[in-house]
Write a structure and sequence with these properties.
Its EC number is 3.2.1.39. It is an enzyme of class 3 (hydrolase). InterPro entries: Beta-glucan_modifiers, GH, Glyco_hydro_17. It is a single-pass type II membrane protein. The radius of gyration is 26 Å and the shape is globular. Strand 9, helix 9 and strand 10 form a beta-alpha-beta unit. The protein is of the alpha/beta class. It has an eight-stranded parallel sheet with strand order 1-4-5-6-7-8-9-10. Helix 2 packs across helix 3 and helix 8 runs parallel beside helix 9. It has ten helices and ten strands.
Amino acid sequence: MNMMARKISPGARNISIGVAVVIVLAVMGGLLGYFLTRGNRFLDSSPLNSTTLDPSLHKSFWGIDYTPLNAQFPICGSKQQDITEDIKVLSQLTSRLRLYGMDCNQAEFTLQAIQDLKVDVKVVLTVWVDGNSTTYQRQSQDLFNTIKRFGPQHIYGISVGNEAFFRKEISHQELYSHISDVRQQLKGLGYNIPVTTSDLGSNYTPELMNHVDFSLANIHPYFAGTLVSDAANWTLNYFQQNIVVPSKAAGRQAIISEVGWPTKGDPERGAVASMANLQYFLDNFLCQANSQGIEYFWFEALDEPWKTQQFTVLEGNWGLLTTDRKLKAKIPNCPIS
C-alpha cells in the first residue's frame, strides 16, 4: 500500500526526540543494572580477606577430599560459581584438596576458583579409571588440557584411578601402564608432578608402592567395624604399620587418601553413623594426627545425594558439610604447623 508522506511539525519532532531519549536512557539503565548485578556475581570471586572469613572455620585439616555437586558424567551440571563458593569455604579449612575425576570441568573450575580467589590451595587431580578404556582416554586428555591451561603451580600430584583394584575393573599391569603413561607425558611437558593411585590400605602392597611416586591409601575405621571411641587410635596404628613402614622402605611418602565418619546409614558392626560420632572422631583424630605430622585427606567435603540415590544412604552422607555448605560438626582448632 502506498502511504503519503506526512509533514511533521517542529513540536511533534521535539516530542519524538524526547521520547526516543527516554527510551535510550531506560535501555541504558537496564543494561547498567544488568552489568552491575553481573559484576556483583564476579565480585564474589574476589580474594578472601579478614572481613569475609568465617570464624567457625579453622585450617585444621591437612587435606580434604572434594567432589563438586553435579559432576557425574554424562549428566554434568556443575557450575563455576558453585565451585567458587565451595572453595571459599574449603580454603578456610585446608591447603590441599583431592578430586576424584576430570569430568564435567570439575578440575578446571576448581583451579579457576583457586586462581580467582588467590587462595593457597594445591590439588591432587584424579584420572578416573574403570573397565572402559575410553574413560581413561577421555579423562587423561582432559587432564593434560587442564594442566596446559593452568600449569603446575596449584597441582600437588596426579592420581591415576581410585580403588580400581578394589573394584576389580582393571588388571594391575594395565593400571601400572596408565601410571607410566601419565608420568611420561608430564615429563614431556617439562613438569615434575608426582603420579600415584589411591586404593584401599589393604591393597597398598610393596609391589604397588614401587610403581607410584607416593602412597595414597584409603583407611576407614568405619568399614573395619571399629567403635568410634577406638577409631582414631586404630586408624593411626593401621596407617603406621601397614602403609608408613613399607612406604619408607620403598623411599615413598605416605598419605591417607580417605579417612572420615558418616552421619547417616546402616551401622557396620560396632561402627555407628551419627552426627555425634562424627564430632567425636573429629575431636580425637584431627589434633592427634596433626601433632604427629600425619598427612591425610579427610573424607569428605560435602554430602553426595547422588550416591544415596544410586547406592545407599551411608554412601551419600560422609560430608563434613551439607550440600548447602553448612557445617555438620564443630571444627577443632588445631592448625597444621
